[in-house]
Amino acid sequence: MEIAGQLSHSRDVRTYREIFALPEFRVLFLARCVTTTAVATGSLALGATTYAGTGSPVLTALAMFGGPLITLLGSATVLSVSDTMGPRRASTIMPAAYVVAFAVQALPDLAWGWRFVILALPHLVGSATSGATMRLLHEIVPADGFVLGRASLNIAAGVMQVAGYGLGGLLLVWFSPTVLFLIAAGSAAAATLILRFGIRERAGVTSGKGVVERTREVNRALLGSPVTRPLYLAMWVPNGLIVGCEALFVPYAGQSSAGYLFAATAAGMLLGDVVVGRFVPPAHRDRLAGPLRLLLAAPYLGFWLAPAPAVAVVLGFVASAGYAASLLWQERLVGVTGAAIRGQAFGLCSTGTMVGQAVGAGLGGVLAVPLGAPHAMGLLAVLSLAVSVALTPGLRRSAPGHDRQGSSALMSGF
């Protein structure tokens, strides 16, 4: 098994055929598909149950999409488990937690207040191990294949999320939410078994420090480093502001046309991931990061003029290809962090991304009240561009070949 793993890392992986030829990557991809479908189906069931019990759109939205906010607590205290625990074991904990949570949610007479308590379980557990999957990906694929592998997992998550919500919507026509919870629990159990028996374990990092102490120390180092801090900000802030634009699609275009805008942006993001991950040679990838981060925001400047829905769809499609810049920032993050802290580095990235999106969406709503949706979207685009430009000097410190003095602690680990 060890020899096979070493051989896989000696190969160039630049096509989908080559990356899916790696047995453990196929397992990781399948597990991501099954887990995403389970979470989407279970979230829809929870939303339907909460709305039926409370009649509150706010509580329903929190039930379906508020869970990731819980990861802030875990990321500040126990995120180092992503490194100190073996990555296979760490990766199986979250789907296993979903098995328990969805099985309990299936109880038909459970009070909605308890449903919120149960909702916290998998997200709190996941916040401790959220970087383990990316750590596994780095172990499974060679360095040149990381972007393609990450893009493939992104595509799997996006497609299966749509499929999960679509399947759940159809099932709700004939079955109760209880049945959906049981289906979601079964799917999460399948994902747990797929990872357990399809991935070989790697050793965790030995640390003489407690989990909370190590988590805080590594977080301070990552956020305090002049090398990694600009990378995190580049992945969190400009993207979050553009998510704020997307959060205004309904007030901008109305319910009938907003769906086209959401579909167009999803398609644009998919296209960007495919092109950057599959067709851009590794030697030329990094130089695209700057143009892509500007592309993400620039088309939204056109919303100042309140374009017709057909034009808005094109602008949203083109802009969303710029999300692929995050793939390149993540590739840099691999290059500037040591193996001993890589799981926590990616877990912190994931938490910050979700928080940035939530803040961006909230800011978009606040700005739209006095400015209206078109001008609010244009202003968010200006802010996104301004932040991207301001981060340019700092991002040079993480560029390939740059002399990164003072980052030895990040490279060697803790």
UniProtKB/TrEMBL annotation:
Keywords: Cell membrane, Membrane, Transmembrane, Transmembrane helix. Gene3D superfamilies: MFS general substrate transporter like domains (1.20.1250.20). InterPro entries: MFS_trans_sf. It comes from the Bacteria. The chain crosses the membrane at residues 27-52, 58-78, 90-107, 153-174, 180-199, 231-254, 260-280, 301-325, 376-395. It is a multi-pass membrane protein. It is found in: Cell membrane. This is Membrane protein.
